[in-house]
Design a protein that fits this description.
It is a single chain. The protein is mainly alpha-helical. It folds into 2 domains: about 100 residues, Arc Repressor Mutant, subunit A (Orthogonal Bundle); about 130 residues. The protein has a two-stranded antiparallel sheet. A hairpin with a 5-residue loop joins β1 and β2. α2 crosses α4. It is globular.
């Protein structure tokens, strides 16, 4: 079956892509198309000809768009060759958001409020470290509840090892940290809060936490999430 026949109705273009000044508008649209095609397998294998026909541009133009998306850290392309060095397949992986130095979020201008007094004491209270938790999750361990897996699936935070090998280490660390704090909230008194959170806000709050309190990042991040979703409407 052709990949275009499996495309999802929805495409995802996060704030990091939408507000990236280095990207052209059509490059952002192409990114969204790739997310839609990647939903089932975690990667997109559509060729440049497919995108060229879709957008009514040349194959060379598509090649430039893809090169820019890879240059600025939004995708990773993997080419497979046969024994004769001929290209037999090309895979495009979404490698999540780039480092905070590469993007300026409009959200930052509106989110400099401090942590409310009533959430300051809500520090992490887990008997598992984040590396162990992350390993359990990517291996689909029965030790983690199906309900929490459902939360991660809704937030598109479930990753396979095949996808992770294409992600930069700082992006993997960000995903580990976010999942760890969500798991702490899930096991604490804030389970209902997880019904309100969304992926984009979680990432934005994480980047803000790095700026404001890198020495106590995880606790600060947890309190920022609580503050956001218990004092503001979403």
């Amino acid at each position: 079956m052709n990949e275009e026949n499996k495309v999802n109705y929805y495409a995802i273009i996060p704030a990091t892509v939408r507000y990236c000044k280095q990207l052209k508008a059509n490059e952002k649209l192409l990114y969204g198309e790739i997310t839609s095609l990647s939903n089932k397998n975690g990667y997109c294998y559509a060729q440049n000809r497919y995108f060229a026909d879709l957008y009514g541009v040349s194959i060379e133009t598509v090649s430039r768009w893809l090169s820019n998306l890879q240059k600025f850290g939004f995708i990773q392309m993997e080419v497979k060759r046969n024994q004769n060095k001929e290209v037999i397949a090309r895979y495009i992986y979404i490698v999540d958001v780039p480092s905070p130095q590469k993007s300026q979020y409009p959200y930052r201008q509106n989110s400099q409020e401090g942590i409310d007094e009533n959430v300051k004491e809500n520090n992490i209270n887990l008997n598992i470290d984040e590396d162990e938790l992350f390993t359990l999750i990517i291996n689909n361990s029965f030790k983690i509840s199906s309900e929490f897996y459902g939360t991660l699936e809704k937030l598109e935070l479930l990753y396979t090892e095949k996808i992770l090998i294409h992600m930069q280490q700082d992006k993997i660390q960000m995903i580990k940290d976010i999942i760890y704090i969500l798991y702490d909230l899930y096991n604490g008194n804030f389970n209902a809060l997880l019904l309100k959170v969304n992926r984009e806000t979680l990432i934005n709050l994480y980047l803000l936490s790095i700026e404001h309190n890198p020495d106590d990042l995880l606790n600060y991040y947890k309190r920022t999430i609580i503050n956001k979703y218990t004092n503001n409407s979403t």
